[in-house]
Specification:
Elements: H1 6-18, H2 26-33, H3 37-50, E1 54-57, E2 61-64, H4 77-93, H5 96-112, H6 118-122, H7 142-151, E3 153-160, E4 166-178, E5 183-189, E6 194-199, E7 203-211, H8 216-231
Helix pairs in contact: 1-3, 2-3, 4-5
């Protein structure tokens, strides 16, 4: 194994811990990463100081418990590249809330990124495509749609379809999608008894109702299972 930089070694140690459900000894980790046990003890102390939820002690073993972690310091070059590409895509195609969040996230990453990876931010290898066209204006703010999604509340929509016909729908909103030319609300439609996509610029009014009778966590896998089929069917809104 080639000699790793300190940040890369810490990342490798995290990955080694993440892949195990039971405590693993420092000796086993040292053998796997080809470093000394003393280095393992020092690195575990450093990770714990950075906020990694590591439990255990010398001679018994260590385990990584679930919890918030993986600060940007621990990202590898390709991971930084992927995150940067995603944030720039959001900056191009997101709404005001997501654009501001992307800028804030990028600033936080840049503030704590290892020095050897700072060049990735300054000179990225990958860039998103051309800036998207200006999106049509929304009558209903995306913030209202987000709130209904988070609350798992139904929405009574007044919707104008592609043929300029107005309809009333009661839907169970589950996701917002940001396309190149439009923003779309994905939802279960009570009228169609199926998942449907609603362009947000065609939503004329939206009234939030009560909580819908299932959980979003249940709807999402069903929605994903239907996407491939729906992609090959005409718009039936």
């Amino acid at each position: 194994m080639p000699v790793l930089s300190r940040s890369a070694r810490l990342l490798a140690l995290l990955q080694a811990l993440r892949g195990r459900r039971r405590p693993v000894t420092a000796a086993a980790l040292a053998q796997e990463l080809e470093v000394s046990e003393r280095t393992i003890y020092r690195d575990i102390a450093e990770l714990a100081a950075q906020g990694a939820p590591i439990e255990g002690e010398a001679g018994i073993g260590y385990v990584l418990r679930p919890g918030l972690f993986l600060p940007p310091l621990m990202l590898g070059a390709e991971e930084v590249e992927a995150v940067l590409l995603g944030l720039r895509y959001v900056d191009q195609r997101g709404d005001e809330i997501l654009t501001a969040a992307a800028a804030s996230a990028l600033a936080k990453i840049g503030a704590v990124l290892a020095p050897e990876l700072q060049a990735v931010l300054a000179q990225p290898l990958a860039l998103p495509g051309p800036t998207a066209e200006r999106f049509p204006e929304n009558t209903v703010a995306l913030a209202r749609l987000r709130l209904a999604i988070r609350r798992e509340h139904a929405l009574d929509l007044t919707y104008r379809d592609a043929e300029n016909r107005e309809t009333r729908r009661t839907v169970w909103p589950i996701q917002l999608a940001f396309m190149d030319r439009a923003r779309v609300l994905a939802a279960w439609c009570e009228l169609r008894q199926d998942f449907r996509f609603f362009r947000t610029d065609r939503i004329l009014a939206a009234t939030e109702g009560d909580r819908y009778p299932t959980r979003r966590a249940v709807l999402l896998p069903q929605f994903r299972a239907r996407i491939a089929q729906m992609q090959n069917t005409p718009d039936r809104n």
